[in-house]
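ok new one. same drill as before - structure tokens go in, u give me an amino acid for every spot. 288 of them this time. try not to just spam alanines like last time pls lmao
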């Protein structure tokens, strides 16, 4: 099946056969990424009343219960409910799971070498993603056309898929200027390959989260100006064979009535076929 989409006065063919998941596969009870030292995501067979949910142990079928912390055990998507008292469930977050997405690669730099800031504190050893680095990859005008941005940090080694983040292995994060630049755009979805858009040890302020969702610093209240349509997806992994550029994103989220849930973002390549006649064109707007 051939599907064509129109974006910014260009026509692209959506390559459905070339889907690439940028979620980290979650291997329960095995090696997996971890943030803040929480327990591993675990799975175990259900047992009781003579039943065992494990065919290897004589059960008629496999039935497992799982325990996990979506924010810390792997790829997950969160809503503004992460920082406010009111319910904005992640399972209700998408009016459509399909949108345009720009993949860009940036190098995190030592805070000592940058001229940007962070609240509440920025230490010389911190590794940050700056507004300057983002602007080198994408203009504000181009950013405004996107429904989503997926950020790949460099170097991009596969250890990200099982890395344990701690005081000795702290992940990068956005500077205040960088998140302000992103938040002033039209994007609905921000995807990153690190555990949080904020500093790991930030005195619990989550200042970048507040900026992105337009929630006043220190507040946990939903207001008329809160950007409830926005999501953040963290701990993705973008393989090196996925080049920087424009894609079609399918953000897959279970219908959990929580602030966050494990998720599976999938990218589809777009081939420019503007000069060719062909199948019916499906328009995509700037958001979703």
């Amino acid at each position: 099946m051939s599907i064509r989409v129109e974006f910014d006065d260009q026509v692209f063919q959506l390559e459905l056969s070339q889907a690439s998941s940028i979620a980290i596969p979650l291997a329960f009870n095995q090696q997996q990424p971890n943030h803040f030292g929480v327990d591993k995501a675990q799975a175990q067979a259900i047992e009781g009343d003579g039943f065992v949910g494990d065919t290897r142990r004589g059960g008629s079928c496999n039935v497992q219960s799982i325990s996990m912390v979506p924010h810390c055990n792997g790829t997950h998507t969160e809503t503004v409910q992460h920082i406010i008292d009111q319910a904005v469930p992640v399972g209700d977050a998408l009016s459509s799971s399909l949108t345009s997405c720009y993949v860009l690669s940036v190098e995190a730099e030592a805070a000592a070498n940058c001229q940007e800031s962070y609240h509440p504190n920025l230490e010389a050893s911190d590794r940050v993603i700056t507004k300057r680095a983002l602007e080198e990859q994408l203009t504000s005008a181009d950013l405004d056309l996107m429904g989503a941005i997926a950020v790949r940090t460099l170097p991009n080694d596969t250890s990200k898929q099982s890395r344990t983040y701690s005081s000795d292995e702290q992940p990068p994060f956005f500077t205040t200027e960088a998140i302000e630049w992103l938040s002033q755009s039209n994007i609905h979805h921000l995807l990153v390959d690190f555990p949080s858009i904020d500093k790991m040890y930030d005195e619990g302020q989550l200042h970048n989260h507040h900026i992105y969702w337009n929630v006043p610093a220190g507040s946990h209240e939903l207001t008329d100006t809160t950007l409830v349509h926005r999501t953040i997806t963290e701990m993705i992994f973008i393989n090196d064979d996925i080049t920087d550029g424009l894609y079609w994103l399918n953000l897959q989220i279970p219908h959990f009535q929580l602030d966050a849930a494990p998720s599976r973002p999938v990218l589809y390549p777009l081939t420019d076929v503007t000069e060719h006649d062909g199948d019916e064109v499906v328009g995509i707007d700037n958001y979703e």
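The chain has one domain: 3-27+74-283. and btw The domain at 3-27+74-283 is CATH 3.50.30.50 (Glucose Oxidase; domain 1).
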